[in-house]
Amino acid sequence: MPYLIYQKRKLVKLKEKFFQQNGGLILLQKLSTSEKSSRFMQIFTEEELKKATRDFDESSIVGKGGFGTVFKGFLEDNRTVAIKKSKIVDDNQKEQFINEVIVLSQINHRNVVRLLGCCLETKVPLLVYEFVNNGTLFDLIHTERTVNGATWKTRVRIAAEAAGALSYLHSEASIPIIHRDVKTANILLDNTYTAKVSDFGASILIPLDQTALSTFVQGTFGYLDPEYVQTGQLTEKSDVYSFGAVLIELLTGEKPYSFGKPGEKKNLANHFLSSLKEDRLVDVLQVGILNEENEKEIKKVAFLAAKCLRLKGEERPSMKEVAIELQKHHLINTDPNQKENEYQLVHEAPSNIYESGDSNSHQGLGSIGDQVLAAMNDGR
Questions:
Q1: How close are the terminal C-alpha atoms of the chain, in Å?
Q2: For residues 205 and 373, is the Cβ–Cβ distance under 8 A?
Q3: Residues 209 and 318 in one domain
């Protein structure tokens, strides 16, 4: 019996150690300063998540990558969740983890994946999200899916939803947020092909008195803003460039960079822009999406993508302008009886998906943003 008590105390101390190492005390302090954030966030125990995933059984794995593993889990209250488990934990990854929790705790938008909570008492911190069950926009474009899922009507709606989410992050969140890794693989899709922008590990909160930040370059090759790469100055327009790369991926069905292709065709943005300039847009569009009814609309979206891909950030449109333009094209493709509801859905302030009632901005988030930025700068 004494041995069992000793082992139990040892386990408790180990969990407390992991909790502190994973930034648990900082997170609890910061989340507690925002009443809404603390309501949204749940701190899960290791036992709860083990039970949800059958002790993280391989059969529960729904995704793997350089970042780690994602498990599908079933909570006791019958919610289906996605549990993100990092591969290893170094100081940089801990910063990203804390950053993602803080960023997502203040976001309330139907087209941003919901962070339900986290677990900090394990060696590797775990994030618990709503389960989005239909893959990513990358999957939709580049793998065999249903014909309906790949129609132009569906693509432009997904683009409008993702643009609306990014516009919200830039201009409507209580502190402006730059995603910093916008790409088709980070736009999840549910079973109705509703877009959910995800993966905020690299995101940065921008103090209200600033429009740009000097930071080390982070993002994905093919989507990276060349001005950001050259200057190290991150602005909202860096997300706009990346979204332009998403748009041309939707239009062409091609990946943003292909090492196996010759010359200019390696870089999709360069190839697309030169084709558009030479009036050869039809040559680069994905087979099957162009018809007489949508030809003018596709051309307009192509020129919108070209604006997003301008080399100088100041010459690019804002995400709000992009979202409004894409919403126009989405409404063209919508049943007339649904247009009024669709318009209201995008242009009204997002409803609180966690609770009803007060919709004021989150409180105390200035200090959160400051600490995240300070931690990132100190670590670099």
A1: 49
A2: yes
A3: yes
> What are the distances in angstroms from CA 225 to CA 9, 301, 309?
51, 19, 8
DSSP string, 332-375: HTS-GGGHHHHHHHHHSPPP-SS-SS--PPPSSHHHHHHHHHHH
pLDDT at 22 over 80: no
Structural domain including 319 reads 137-347
Of the three residues 93, 111, 131, the one that is the final residue of a domain is: 131
List, by residue number, the catalytic residues. 181
Closest CA to 103 of 164, 154, 165, 155: 165
Domain tally, the chain: 2
Residue 123 assigned to a binding site: no
Residues 325 and 301: their CA atoms lie apart, in Å, by 8
Distance, in Å, from the CA atom of 47 to the CA atom of 9, rounded to the nearest integer, reads 16
Residue 235 lies in a domain: yes
Residue 34 domain flag: yes
Q: Looking at 36-45, 49-58, 169-178, 370-379, which range is the least confident one?
A: 370-379
| Same domain? 72 vs 204 | no
pLDDT in tens, 257-308: 888 887 778 899 999 999 999 999 999 999 888 988 899 999 999 999 999 9
